[in-house]
């Protein structure tokens, strides 16, 4: 990960400026709201203990980020989208669970989210 | 262990923000999202101990609770100015709707990261003494912000000017910086 992860989200969503803007605002709003956050925007993922997702709508799709709580922070694991019962990527839950295990085992660096 | 931190974004490198703003789709979507989400989240935060029904009652009809719920939905985004003015009156806060240059919006975007969403009412501000200290003259700051920055014009050494422009005498510093002087007062 170059530059210590700075600009990572912006780069990942470079071709989706509307989604990126909506995500930046949603993250900003949640960060300014005291916990617990409203279930409409942030809730536990079924059949995945310890995993949560934040979600927002943009550009005709529902966008979600899976992650987990760590010392009062939300650690993002995977960005995925949902439309008409189709998830992209299809194996989002499996990937999220694997990332969760790897992140907790210290296989990834966790970087501050900036926008 | 370093952690993801969405509570402080002031450490965002300026060039990353500027790069995002280069894209018109991004910057206009950001404004739209801020308005849609900002209003919804602010309403919920300001309501605090009140129920949606209480707010509906203050709007004039307790049966309007589903409408208040809709107002708190960040995906709604179809508020009328009249409704927003009514809500501002209910919570006794100011409503500010105006056009702004993107440079100012971007500055606000960066600086508002940790601002509370629950805007205090006039009475709460009064109790906190918000009106007892002198008000900072932000107008002057804003005017300076909009003004083109005037960089100090280096005074060329006479010999150097002669070397490159042998037929043109160096202008006095005050004349060379005339536009700067006009804007920088």
What topology emerges from the helices and strands here?
The complex is a heterodimer of chains A (115) and B (185).
Chain A: H1 8-12, H2 17-32, E1 42-44, E2 52-58, E3 61-70, E4 73-83, E5 86-88, H3 92-104
Antiparallel strand pairs in A: 1-2, 2-3, 3-4, 4-5
Chain B: H1 14-21, H2 24-47, H3 52-59, H4 65-71, H5 81-91, H6 102-111, H7 122-128, H8 138-146, H9 158-164, H10 173-176, H11 178-183
Helix pairs in contact in B: 3-4
What this model shows, in words?
The complex is a heterodimer of chains A (115) and B (185). Chain A has three helices and five strands; from the N terminus they run H-H-E-E-E-E-E-H. Chain A is of the alpha+beta class. Chain A has one domain. Chain A has a five-stranded antiparallel β-sheet with strand order 1-2-3-4-5. In chain A, strand 1 and strand 2 form a beta hairpin. The radius of gyration of chain A is 14 Å and the shape is globular. With 185 residues, chain B is mostly helical. Chain B has two domains: 132 residues, no CATH class; 39 residues, no CATH class. Chain B is 55% helix and 0% strand. Chain B has eleven helices and no strands. Chain B is globular, with a radius of gyration of 25 Å. Chains A and B meet through helix 2, strand 2 and strand 4 of A and helix 1 and helix 2 of B.
């Amino acid at each position: 990960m170059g530059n210590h992860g700075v600009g990572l989200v912006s780069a990942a969503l470079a071709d989706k400026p509307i989604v990126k803007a909506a995500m930046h605002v949603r993250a900003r709003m949640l960060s300014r709201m005291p916990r617990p956050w409203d279930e409409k925007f942030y809730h536990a993922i079924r059949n995945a203990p310890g995993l949560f997702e934040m979600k927002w709508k943009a550009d005709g799709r529902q966008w979600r980020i899976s992650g987990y709580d760590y010392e009062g922070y939300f650690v993002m694991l995977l960005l995925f989208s949902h439309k008409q019962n189709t998830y992209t990527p299809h194996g989002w839950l499996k990937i999220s669970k694997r990332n969760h295990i790897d992140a907790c085992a210290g296989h990834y660096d966790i970087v501050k989210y900036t926008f | 262990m370093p952690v993801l931190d969405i509570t402080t974004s002031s450490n965002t490198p300026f060039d990353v923000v500027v790069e995002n703003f280069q894209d018109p789709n991004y910057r206009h979507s950001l404004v739209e999202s801020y308005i849609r989400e900002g209003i919804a989240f602010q309403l919920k935060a300001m309501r605090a101990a009140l129920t949606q029904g209480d707010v509906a009652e203050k709007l004039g009809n307790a049966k309007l609770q589903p409408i208040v719920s809709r107002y708190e939905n960040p995906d709604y985004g179809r508020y009328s100015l009249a409704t927003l003015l009514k809500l501002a009156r209910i919570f006794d806060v100011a409503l500010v709707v105006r056009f702004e240059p993107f440079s100012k919006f971007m500055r606000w975007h960066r600086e508002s990261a940790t601002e509370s969403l629950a805007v205090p009412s006039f009475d709460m501000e009064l109790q906190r003494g918000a009106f007892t200290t002198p008000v900072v003259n932000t107008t002057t700051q804003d005017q300076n912000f909009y003004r083109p920055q005037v960089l100090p014009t280096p005074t060329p050494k006479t010999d150097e000017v002669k070397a490159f422009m042998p037929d043109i005498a160096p202008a006095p510093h005050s004349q060379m910086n005339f536009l700067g002087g006009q804007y920088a007062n």
